[in-house]
Fold this protein.
Amino acid sequence: MGIFEEVKQKVEEILENAENLTGIGEKDLQTLKDKKDILISWSDELMDNFYRTLLNYPKTAKVFEKIPVERVKAKNKKWYEEVVSGKLDKNFYEFQFLVGLIHIYYGIENNVMIFMAQHLKSHFLNKAVETFETEEAIAVFKAFSKLVDFLIALTIEGYTFTLREALMDIAGYTSGLVDTMMGMKLEEIYRALREGLPERS
Ligand code: HEM
């Protein structure tokens, strides 16, 4: 199987997990579609706030020494507007894997992605509560949240996927050997933590 097919298969597996575990699906897309004009009208405010936070923290601001923040903001804005328009096809889910990889390429850590997803979702929730009746606000927030989490899940899986591919394709290890090495390290780290940490009652 070629790398493109492997990625497609991985995305399908993750989508199946998301559908079964979070219920992500057409209903969420319809919820967003129904409110799309209002949700799109929030995009400048959400994006300004998102990148202000990244620029105010030296560790994340560093990324924008290599690439203009306005360019990144414009891409993220386009992404947000596509998500809240609720008009997503299967290809969109695969595209999320690529978006995740782009962040890995720029050395953005998974924890930073998770925290910024939280940042975006919190701001979105505030706007939803200010704008809609409680039930509608909850539904819109849940739908948006599931799609953001899907991107984050793919980013995290993309990291492990790339690392495994590198070990197998470049270092020449078999999948079984990678698992064995992981298992051995896991055992060592597990023991060190069990011994190093005080018992919790
Ligand atoms: C919820 C979190 C995030 C979302 C939804 C998001 C979304 C996106 C999207 C959609 C793209 C464009 C992909 C493309 O079409 O080329 C992108 C690119 C990028 N993002 Fe993010 N991003 C997030 C977090 C971050 C963070 C935390 C940083 C920096 C610390 C960051 C920095 C970048 C950079 C440098 C690019 C590459 C732009 C380019 O090559 O033109 N992103 N992001």
